[in-house]
Specification:
By secondary structure, the chain is α/β, with parallel strands linked by helices. The chain has seven helices and 13 strands. It binds S-adenosylmethionine. GO terms for molecular function: histone H2AQ104 methyltransferase activity; RNA binding; rRNA methyltransferase activity.
């Protein structure tokens, strides 16, 4: 498909592509919806800005998770829905349960959820999965981006409640949120060692230049 200003380079997952917009590489999703956070829309393609979304940054860095159109997803730390909006584009038949505990970003997030059919917004604390266990079912994928000191404990509690056998997890870790004094590399090592006790690590890696001192950790149960 050739549209003025955009060139599709490679398919990454359902409705998700590595592309070039005005000569600059980025990620895009095919979308029936309007822009949500100031991103460009060219024809059916909505720019997924890697500086605004760690999942887009991970794709830009070359790691792939083949998010399927029928997946059920639990998203911890939805904020105002930047990344959720693109996962929503990908899920043709699936849906995304999205947890956020701060009322301010949740207000903008609700506008997105009202516009879409496949987002279930939940204003709650991701550290208390029992609060929403009556709403959320078993899922194929848990994504976490909450920048909290005890985020591994929170992630593990949600896995125990909601992740299917063989399901995927993806955690975004900001070194300074875990330990503001230690070297980022030693913080990352510690976090990965802790996760290895319970999960199989598929891949981890940095997100620079898009997000400094952050890593992604992709794992499976
Ligand atoms: C870095 S932002 C998330 C950005 C978002 N994932 C995106 O890419 O569009 C982190 C969010 O996690 C939320 N958060 C932190 N701890 C949380 C918790 N225990 N439960 C629910 N939300 C939490 C914060 O309020 C904040 O909105």
């Amino acid at each position: 498909m050739s549209l003025k200003g955009i060139k599709i380079i490679e398919k990454i997952a359902n409705k998700t592509y590595l592309a070039e917009i005005n000569g600059k590489e980025t990620i895009v999703t095919e979308s029936r919806n309007p822009p949500h956070y100031g991103e460009k829309k060219i024809g059916k393609y909505r720019e997924w800005i890697p500086y605004r979304s760690k999942l887009s940054a991970m794709f830009m860095k070359g790691h792939r998770i083949d998010i399927k159109p029928e997946w059920k997803v639990l998203y911890l730390g939805a904020a105002s829905g930047t990344t959720v909006s693109h996962i929503s584009d990908i899920l043709d038949y699936g849906y995304i349960y999205a947890i956020e505990y701060s009322a301010k970003p949740f207000k903008k997030f609700l506008e997105l959820a009202i516009e879409r059919q496949n987002i279930i917004p939940i204003l709650d604390d991701a550290g208390k999965p029992e609060n929403y266990s009556g709403i959320v079912e078993k899922v194929d994928f848990i994504y976490q981006d909450i920048a909290q000191k005890n985020q591994i404990e929170i992630f593990t509690a949600n896995v125990d409640f909601f992740l299917k056998d063989g399901g995927h997890g993806l955690i975004m870790v900001k070194a300074r949120s875990i330990d503001s004094t230690a070297e980022p590399e030693s913080v990352f090592e510690r976090v990965i060692d802790e996760l290895k006790e319970k999960f199989r690590i598929v891949k981890s890696g940095g997100l620079e230049p898009y997000h400094k001192d952050h890593i992604f950790i992709h794992l499976k149960v």
